[in-house]
User: Fold this.
Amino acid sequence: MISERDVRARAVEVFQPFYASQLEGWVPTPREWLIDGVLLRKSVCLLAGPPKIGKSLGLQQLLTSSATGLPWLGREALHCRAFGLFTEDPGDELARRQVDINAHYGRSAADLELNLSWDAREGREATLIEFGRYDDRPIYTPLWHQLWAFVASEGIEVVGIDTAAVTFGGNENSRAQVTAFMRELHRQAIAINGAIVLCAHPSKSVPGSYSGSTAWLASARFALSLNRPADYDEETGEPRDVRLLRGLGANYSAGLATQRLEYRDGVFEASGDAHGSRRRAPLNQTERLDLRYRLLQGLKRVMANGAQVVADEMHAKSLPSRARRVPELSKVSLNDLYRAQAEMLEAGQVVRVAVGRWCLLRPAEGPGYPDERPWSG
Assistant:
């Protein structure tokens, strides 16, 4: 049964419709990635993969990247506090892994200060949410309340949960229960203005996917799959140290191309990345102006070829997404590209216009789109 406390909490939620006219004069701020192209603020990311494939290691590396501000598998990471709830690994195994991860990043344990913490719950109760026998409403366990109280008190912005199989106390094939669980995680991501990474096992019939209801993927803003390459031989176990990381789908992203990873010295490295890669310094004023100039010229070229550029910076046909496909701009972080587009709009270099049902970008001085209208959204 759902607790009386939860019933009272639900009863005080305010029903407050929003009118589109309230957007008058509102200027949207760019969305922000905590891990470039993978982990968005106020979202839940699903990391799927078969047992013993390395999900826990990949998650621990991601948490360390957040805690240090150093790249995760070659992708920019914002510096913030991180926490991991590990349910399948003993504490000494996590500690051994962390020694290798620290060596890879060139950091000592003391360098992490209070920015990285975890709870190893192997052999202990680790369920976060349960459900009644004939009820799809979530019942919060004591661990649920302890977890989020700790996260809030410590100012943690990135939370890793390994795995869904242990922490989800419902039926993984029940769309209603899975959706309820994921929505509760999403609420917490919003509350901490951060992100949650949830590890999950794949379907036995589709190893590159995930197990259970399609609601797992539908409820996540982004989903990743960690798996073996197509040429993996189960009999010989070769190639032993190669993995593939690919995107399963996203509501908001510039997409994730399949990435080849190699296991070396106790960590995963993006194939071709220099060992011990470092985060690039933030763009200085000159570099930011140069980026805006490049984007403006690129916008003109795209329009000259008859294409449209969507104003939503996360759309596949947006200016930042198109820029990432240009070799000389492929290493510029999405956050820098989003910021550049926002600065161009604020400076009046580009404007939003309506074409059909789309809000598009074009240079302020032209050229324009056929049949464009002023954007009033």
